[in-house]
Amino acid sequence: MILLYYTLRDYTYPKVEKPFFDDRKLFAFFALGVVLGMVIFAFESYAGFGAGAEVLLLLILGFALMEELMKLIILNFPRFQRKIDTAFYGLSMGLGMAATFTFATIYVFLLDLTDPQPVDFVAVTFLGLLFVLLHGSTTAIIGVGVARGEAKGYFMDAFLIHVVFGIFYESFFVVEIIPTPFNLLGLVGASAIVVYAYAKVHRQLLPNLIRDAKRLAQKKK
User: Fold this and answer.
1) Maximum CA pair distance of the chain?
2) What is the pLDDT of residues 24-35, one digit of tens each?
3) Cα 174 vs. chain centroid, distance in angstroms?
């Protein structure tokens, strides 16, 4: 919720006279994302991750494709196409998904520890925040693509971000393949990917979308 406020505060009252999105729809999409996050977590937890690099890679690709297609299908309904507010609803839905997915992931991870220490709480929370940035950025990217009428290209961007993140992230845990401390490079790479993606949404994609929409509105006048 803090991240949602931080990203959208420049696009609603009192920063602007006329907000670029409807608050009711924004939180409706957030609530939808909360439900989707639990569905995704339940499905992926049931499916699990198999042994071997080939199986792991296939699961990363499959889960990334499933999640990003789900986002595209919802945001690409005709009523949301080529509408500026779709980008903001995409961000809200993505952060809603991340909220429950991350909470469930942290909860299950800590349950597996017999005697969790403070450092374990800090570590797993940090890992969870990576998923917040991942789902927030990729869903917003798809939303921007739908708003611009270029859904396919932006979907591919979101999908690639998700896949690269997944490869880096999972490489941190497969110590039998990538031993410590080299597996830490995977965590660094995963962090860099999602921080870059979210920063791009916040500093480039959303501002450029609004700027181009204003320019188009001026031309029509």
Assistant:
1) 66
2) 999 999 999 999
3) 23
Over residues 76-89, the pLDDT tens digits come to 999 999 999 999 99
Q: Are 95 and 32 in contact (CB under 8 A)?
A: no
Model confidence, pTM: 0.93
Is there a contact between 3 and 132 (Cβ–Cβ < 8 Å)? yes
Does 212 reside within a domain?
yes
- Work out how many domains the chain is built from and give that number: 1
Residue 123 lies in a domain: yes
DSSP secondary structure string for all residues of 95-137: HHHHHHHHHHHHHHHHHT-SS--HHHHHHHHHHHHHHHHHHHH
Phi-psi region of 81 (alpha: psi -120 to 50; beta: other; left: phi over 0): beta
Choose among 127, 119, 89, 104: nearest CA to 8. Answer: 89
Residue 210 lies in a domain: yes
Q: What is the pLDDT of residues 5-22, one digit of tens each?
A: 999 999 998 888 889 999
Range of the domain at 54: 2-11+22-220
